[in-house]
């Protein structure tokens, strides 16, 4: 590979949101650039970067030009500039659509292209604090307060620290769990009777390997009983014997996960009986590896965590506009082009543009990467051992730019080689298409031309190879997720190929063209013995109903007009997997705070949102929309209830971890946990039967204690502990005394009064603290490893 250019310019970049009150649909920002190098920068430079907020070119400071390149990639340039001298600074003020209230809204991934076209990474800007009212609120009508220390204190005021005997020992909560004062002891050499359950025996042996030796402890018996419900288990613990029984291996495995939570580090278990069965058959988690790539190790860790909380479906979002992440041997361009992002150095092959701050370097591990066939097979086999079904997603016809661009490159290569027929074989775009559209993430060329026969050939080739990988892994491929979401209005309208097909069939609406495409997809999958599924648009945009087919319903945010979409589709005969943005989007920020990463277009999603979702109510939505406004009573009254058949067709729940903000394994884990545990609780445990807000509050208090006192400390004890989110404390000062609390009772809160950073060695908060003479108070929650949450700072007037 050609070496990338080195020794480029040194530029200090600072960014600030000046005001979100510019108008209701735009904010004003300032970018400050300073040449901090020793050499001048020649005229003709272009500063490129990614931003999720579309810049309005007419508002940019005089002398500068703003260009939208594609997707979230933008550029500033100075058409009439002289040399940029050392020490010289430029200030660019501009407006963008929507608002900026957090670090997620700031531009990132800056790089400079010089006059010769070489690209030099500059990194992310220094982001000015969001301190003023017009910086912390989206518009004047934003009624949702910032989640500061006082707000958190009020939110968590009703929580209480429960005695341990009032806190459940197993998560998700089982149907029945009764324990007595007796103890059972296991050790490394504990005998295991379970010859026919090979992997479950291996799993149990790995649990016991960390325990002390125990010669006189109990025996463990693993048994199956087909009379039990699928995935159900029975766990009986006596001083001399432990019985784990399930309908099959999966039920036994679920019982072992509960056993693992009961097992103390010294090898002891409480004696008792657990009877358990899941509420929903589908309990899923989606990981998007297209926007930012996740390593094999990251995926395996997530699967292990899912299994420990009895989730059983892994929705693997492998493709999108910004990346294609699975090697397909027949189409190497999919990963040669579609799995690489950046600005190619001289001699490098073409690739996708930088997105979400991945930068110019095509070797960036977050922007570039894919799974080889061997790695994908290893993931499938690991998931199978954990009794998790992997549902691969190949998004089409929209959200498909990585594939579309890769096949354009293939077409150009083969055309140049004189192979016109080969060039057309897998083409996904109409070269004469003049359609004008913009996707929700600002792409102008991300939709497949679904009238081309080469599109069908492409899908069939990919599906055949994916099916072969599943067969090689020894894992059944039951269903393939085809995406189908967010196709922008305007696609296909000026494509000669699409218009010709519509005239040939007598169609007058693009919807009919799409119906035909989905029917062809179903037929291709059926030929391979695979079922079809997709996001809600595959049902909503179809003129024909496919009763009994799975559909994933996501867009239930207030104001979407689809708040009851899940109910409508379930009543219409679809099997619905609730994937609700307002409760189950784990890429969203936990709270409205400038330092909290994540999107928030449908609201803010803390652990309480997935926990508090009651899937069979009609529908249980947040008490306010994303702006803090109460929902329209007329709209509430018009929401469709679930009929009796519709209730039976709510198949389950799935959490979505979209990848735009998941730039590292640590960020993936921060966004996933502890929300994933709240999802598991609601998907597995019996109907909570809440009659009013008090019932929900009581259940939440117990669950919050379970996280703070049991589950998060247990995650800390793992050989490779999780980087879960630690909630910052709530705090207020009353009558010269500090009062603090925490969202997950049991987590330690530590503080300092001298301005230093709090940690495990700082005083622990247990009761109100006198603040005589203190001017700067800092607090943090701290886990059992000594890792601290975001620091909370209160600046006080000296008393």
Low-pLDDT residue intervals, each spanning 5 or more residues: none
- Structural class given helices, strands, pairing? alpha/beta
State the separation between the terminal residues, measured CA to CA. 65 Å
Question: How is the largest sheet built, in terms of strand order?
Answer: 20-17-16-25-24-23-22-21
Strand content: 15-25%
Largest sheet: 8 strands, parallel
Q: What is the quaternary state of this protein? A: single chain
Residue share in helices? 25-40%
Number of helices: 21
Mean pLDDT: 95
In angstroms, what is the radius of gyration? Answer: 28 Å
Topology:
Blueprint: E1 11-23, E2 26-35, E3 46-50, E4 65-70, E5 73-77, E6 89-97, E7 108-113, E8 119-123, E9 126-127, H1 133-136, H2 149-155, E10 176-185, E11 192-193, H3 198-208, E12 219-224, E13 233-237, E14 241-246, H4 249-262, E15 268-276, E16 282-288, H5 296-308, E17 313-317, E18 319-320, E19 323-324, H6 333-336, H7 373-385, E20 389-393, H8 401-416, H9 420-424, H10 453-473, E21 479-481, H11 496-505, H12 510-527, E22 531-535, H13 537-540, E23 550-553, H14 565-571, E24 575-578, H15 581-584, H16 608-612, H17 633-638, H18 644-648, E25 650-657, H19 665-672, H20 675-684, H21 693-716, E26 730-734, E27 737-741, E28 748-752, E29 769-770, E30 776-782, E31 792-795
Parallel strand pairs: 1-9, 11-12, 12-14, 16-17, 16-25, 17-20, 21-22, 22-23, 23-24, 24-25
Antiparallel strand pairs: 1-2, 2-6, 3-5, 3-7, 4-5, 7-8, 10-15, 13-14, 13-15, 18-19, 26-27, 27-29, 28-30, 30-31
């Amino acid at each position: 590979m050609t070496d990338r250019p080195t020794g480029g310019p040194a530029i200090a970049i600072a960014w600030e949101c000046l005001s979100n009150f510019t108008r209701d649909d735009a904010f004003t920002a300032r970018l400050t650039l300073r040449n901090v190098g020793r050499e001048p920068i020649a005229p003709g430079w272009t500063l490129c970067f990614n931003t999720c907020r579309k810049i309005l070119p007419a508002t940019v400071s005089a002398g500068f030009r703003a260009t939208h390149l594609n997707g979230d990639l933008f550029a500033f340039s100075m058409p009439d500039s002289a040399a940029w001298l050392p020490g010289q600074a430029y200030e660019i003020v501009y407006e963008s659509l929507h608002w900026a209230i957090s670090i997620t809204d700031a531009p990132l991934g800056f790089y400079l292209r010089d006059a010769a076209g070489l690209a030099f990474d500059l990194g992310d800007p220094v982001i000015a604090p969001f301190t003023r009212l017009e910086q912390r609120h989206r518009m004047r009508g934003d009624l949702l307060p910032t989640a500061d220390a006082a707000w958190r204190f009020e939110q968590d005021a009703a929580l209480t620290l429960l005695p341990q005997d009032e806190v459940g020992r197993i998560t998700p909560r089982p149907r029945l769990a009764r324990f007595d004062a007796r103890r059972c002891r296991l050790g490394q050499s504990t005998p295991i009777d379970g010859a026919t359950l090979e992997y479950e025996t291996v799993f149990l042996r790995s649990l016991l390997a960390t325990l002390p030796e125990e010669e006189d402890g109990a025996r463990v018996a693993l048994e199956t009983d087909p009379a039990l419900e699928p995935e159900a288990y029975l766990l009986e613990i006596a001083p001399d014997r432990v019985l784990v029984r399930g309908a099959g291996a999966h039920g036994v495995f679920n019982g072992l996960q509960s056993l693992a939570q009961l097992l103390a580090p010294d090898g002891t278990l409480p004696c008792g009986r657990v009877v358990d069965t899941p509420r929903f058959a589908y309990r899923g988690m989606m990981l998007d590896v297209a926007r930012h790539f996740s390593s094999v190790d990251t995926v395996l860790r997530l699967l292990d965590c899912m299994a420990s909380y009895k989730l059983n479906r892994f929705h693997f979002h492998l493709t999108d506009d910004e990346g294609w992440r699975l090697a397909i041997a027949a189409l190497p361009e999919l990963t040669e082009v579609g799995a690489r992002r950046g600005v190619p150095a001289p001699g490098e092959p073409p690739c996708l543009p930088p997105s979400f701050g991945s930068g110019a370097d095509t070797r960036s591990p977050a922007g570039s990467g894919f799974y080889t066939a061997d790695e994908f097979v290893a993931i499938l086999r690991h998931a199978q051992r954990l009794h998790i079904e992997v549902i691969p997603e190949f998004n089409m016809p929209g959200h498909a730019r990585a594939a579309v661009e890769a096949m354009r490159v293939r077409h150009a290569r083969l055309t140049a080689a004189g192979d016109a027929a080969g060039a057309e074989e897998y083409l996904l775009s109409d070269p004469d298409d003049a359609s004008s559209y913009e996707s929700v993430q600002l792409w102008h060329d991300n939709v497949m031309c679904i009238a081309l026969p080469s599109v069908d050939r492409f899908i069939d080739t990919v599906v055949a190879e994916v099916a072969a990988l599943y067969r090689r892994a020894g894992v059944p491929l039951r269903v393939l997720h085809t995406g189908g979401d967010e196709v922008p209005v305007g696609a296909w309208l000026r494509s000669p190929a699409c218009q010709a097909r519509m005239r040939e069939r007598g169609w007058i609406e693009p919807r009919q063209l799409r119906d035909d495409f989905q029917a062809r997809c179903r037929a291709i999958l059926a030929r391979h013995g695979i079922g079809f599924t997709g996001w809600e648009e595959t049902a909503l945009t179809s003129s024909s109903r496919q009763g009994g087919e799975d559909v994933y319903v996501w867009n239930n945010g207030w104001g979407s007009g689809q708040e009851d979409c899940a109910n409508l589709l379930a009543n219409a005969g679809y099997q619905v997997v609730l994937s609700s943005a307002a409760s189950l989007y784990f890429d969203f920020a936990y709270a409205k705070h400038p330092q909290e990463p994540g999107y928030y277009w449908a609201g803010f999603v803390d652990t309480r949102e997935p926990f508090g979702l009651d899937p069979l109510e009609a529908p249980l939505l947040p008490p306010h929309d994303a702006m803090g406004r109460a929902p329209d009573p007329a709209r509430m009254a018009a929401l469709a209830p679930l009929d009796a058949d519709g209730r039976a067709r709510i198949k389950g729940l799935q959490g979505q971890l979209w990848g735009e903000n998941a730039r590292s394994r640590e960020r993936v884990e921060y966004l996933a946990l502890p929300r994933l545990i709240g999802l598991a609780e609601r998907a597995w445990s019996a109907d909570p039967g809440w009659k009013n807000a008090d019932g929900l509050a009581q259940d939440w208090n117990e669950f919050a204690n379970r996280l703070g006192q049991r589950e998060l400390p247990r995650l800390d004890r793992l050989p490779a502990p999780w980087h879960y989110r630690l909630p910052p404390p709530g705090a207020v000062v009353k009558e010269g005394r500090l009062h603090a609390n925490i969202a997950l009772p049991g987590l330690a809160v530590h503080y300092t009064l001298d301005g230093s950073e709090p940690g495990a060695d700082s005083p622990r908060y247990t009761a109100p603290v006198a603040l005589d003479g203190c001017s700067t108070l800092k607090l943090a929650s701290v886990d059992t490893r000594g890792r601290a949450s975001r620091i909370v700072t209160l600046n006080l007037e000296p008393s």
